[in-house]
Amino acid sequence: MEKSAILSVLADEVEQGRLVFPTSANAAIKIKEQLEDPDCSLDAVIRFIQIEPLLSTKVVAIANSVVFNRSGKKITDVRSAVTLIGMRTIRNLATAIVVQQLAGSQLKSPIAAQLWKHSAHVAALAQVIARRVTAQDPDTAMFAGMIHEISWFYLLAREKHYPGLVDDSLASAWSSDEDLEDESELECEIKIGTAILKALLVPQPVLESIICLWEGYLAFPPSTLGDTLLFADQLAPVKSPFVLPSHQTGDDIVGNFDTLAGQEALSSILKDSQDEVKSLTEALCA
After folding, report:
1. 40 and 91 in contact (C-beta within 8 Å)?
2. pTM over 0.90
3. Torsion of Cα atoms, 227 then 230 then 233 then 239, to 10°
4. What are the DSSP calls for 25-89, one per residue?
5. Which fold has domain 3-18+103-284?
6. Dist CA 156 CA 103 (whole Å)
7. So where are the chain's domains?
8. Which of 130, 155, 237, 263 suits a disulfide with 138, CB 3.0-4.6 Å?
9. Tens digits of residue pLDDT in 90-138
């Protein structure tokens, strides 16, 4: 079956509500739902985090990042980490874990690993850009960065039902000029990602910002959450194995932004924030 035909079939599936999640993702979704219960006590929150190793690891790692832990005092337990970073960040991390787990048995494949490293870099950069450039909420920007590759994590999981859908040769072929010109394929990717984001109850502003990234329209100067996300995506040193329809490189963006009058030079902002970005990226990849 042709790639475009597979995408069309999968897009129809998700639009009809027939989302197929691997067992690991379903377990992560249940924990996410429990954490979002407003009546969930602190002790219950801590128990739920502790039973999910990937989540507990990231929670403690995030709490020790430069962004959240200005004192530098080492955090070694979940309770202290939760108290420091707060429930909003905890819930965002829980959703990010669901996104990772969507890859199912492909979670440790090279493509999935690159996809998550890319997501982590985008999340860290988006947090800084929101705070220093676009005046958006930094936590929301970081959250959007963590989950913006959701459709591809889902497609990785579906590969076992559609052999060859996502493999090394396809990943490299996906970025060819001919593929990028096929709007129907991009539309299918957006349909798949949008349906999953809605199923996970991702807030509408975050969903819209991710769609903005998928469509690849970046305004200058960047000002919206969508601009923040697309800006971060194009600056990320680890690229997605699946290229979006954007023709600007990170160097192009830095050059263009640095020429804008009355703005702090982007190169200076990135240099000043490099420790924060590095620390947060490493925490998300923990």
Report:
1. no
2. no
3. -170
4. HHHHHHHHHHHT-TT--HHHHHHHHHT-HHHHHHHHHHHTSTTT-TT-PPP-SHHHHHHHHHHHH
5. Hypothetical protein af1432 (1.10.3210)
6. 5
7. 3-18+103-284, 23-101
8. 130
9. 999 999 999 999 888 787 888 889 999 999 999 999 999 999 888 999 9
